[in-house]
């Protein structure tokens, strides 16, 4: 199922890519000087962006593990990013060895790492599709080759929607992705917010936009609108590190990790 996709074959090192900048924040090595330069500008304004990236990854792991433990056996992860262990399939195939996972991303460098992403359990299945989240029909068509939409699917959009501005109607994108999925399917979201330091986040967004990357921070109330018509999983939309934290975990100050997370179930 691995698909290079039209126009996605060559790695463009002339401008930064959010997946490679994110990898840089996490301490990865799969980025280029143009990504380092843009990422360092963000770090100079918001030094705790690395902390926020780690908080976001931890939220992904906890949310995915919870859904797997509750019996969800199919996962569609859009905006996968460069592999950072444990990856989603490693999290969910531990409690459910036969879980099926489809990864989707639009950065060709992720395609180069698809082999690592596809090393799942013998019982389960992991596949990779190259596409932009706004290519809804392409994603759904490819995912349904692997996943059975007559049964619950977890749609994971981790730290992705803040790269889709209101101009491109991200709520409609999410609605169209969820529409064909069976009742009991779940939506997992995380999203940065500028609520706690609006001035800094205006400048961070500006850095991304100056590098050709549309971006938009949103409030917790705005993130909650993506879950309208669905049943929020307790504790609802929360700062990501406070969403079902590990026992004994110390909370991270909101200014250091201004990112919300939430999970909801399709009724």
TrEMBL record:
Entry's Gene Ontology BP terms: methylation
Transferase among keywords: yes
Alphabetical UniProt keywords: Methyltransferase, Transferase
One Pfam family here: Methyltransf_19
Gene Ontology molecular function: any one: methyltransferase activity
InterPro entries named among the record's database cross-references: SAM-dependent_MTases_sf, SAM_dep_MeTrfase_SAV2177_type
Cross-referenced SUPFAM superfamilies: S-adenosyl-L-methionine-dependent methyltransferases
Superkingdom as given in the UniProt entry: Bacteria
Name under which the protein is recorded: SAM-dependent methyltransferase
